[in-house]
Amino acid sequence: MDASPKLFEEFGLTEKEGGVYLTLLKLERAKVSTLGKKSGFPRTSLYPILEKLLKRGFVRILRIGNHQEWEASEPKEIYKQAKETIKGLEEAVPLLEALKGSLAGHIRTADILFYKSIDGIKKAYDDILKLRRGERVYSIEGNFSQPSKLRRFRKSYMLEWLAKHKKTEVIYEAVESEKLFQLIETIDLELLKGQAGRLVVLTILPDHLMNFDAEIFCFRNTLVIVIVSQDTAIFIHNPEVVEAFRSLFVIAQTLGKKVDFNRAVFEELARRGLKKE
């Protein structure tokens, strides 16, 4: 690693301040006039820099006879000081965690998180992959949501997500519209193969009941509303809201028709001339 002034940015110093310290370290100690010549900074600029370095423990002032000199602190001293600072912060963490949200009202801002980006949407789906084997996701998805995903997500991301989902063995209970069958018939072959073997419990509702562009799903104590076409993901961390959605989900399942998702996928693969692996 080069001894670059940028090295000290991790300590909250600017590149100029780091450069002055390195110059002084090479000189060991020096008058401001000498330091100015060697560092290329005028004295008027050096004094505020040296004052900051002094406060941070990077330099010290020496009285030599009738004049004043500046001395660079030993690198080992700076390292020791940084370790002590980190140790003090580590000891304070439990106290700081206890203070978190202590002045908030009944509903904390953290209960509802709003993302307006494709990365926020990916976070919603990637959080599903963190669930344990056998846990369940409950989803209701509108007619226009799946086509929006195919347009908005990269194929590589979808294939990777499908593969990881199968490995997690997380169960996806989904309520979809009849248009899902059209999607299965027209979807890219690689993506169709990626769907095969997923743990999906599928219920189908008539198209006219599902004319919206969103997927609403929940897991554990989190409800997520995803509108891919608008790059929007809303996370609601609230057990009462999740319980209400699950009740609505059960109603939707009761009204719909159970369908064997994997059978539909394998039948389409067979129609395209591929045998079940």
UniProtKB/TrEMBL annotation:
InterPro entries reported in the protein's UniProt record: TrmB-like, Tscrpt_reg_TrmB_N, WH-like_DNA-bd_sf, WH_DNA-bd_sf
Gene3D superfamilies linked to this entry: Winged helix-like DNA-binding domain superfamily/Winged helix DNA-binding domain
Every Transcription regulator TrmB N-terminal domain range: 9-69
Protein name per UniProt: Transcription regulator TrmB N-terminal domain-containing protein
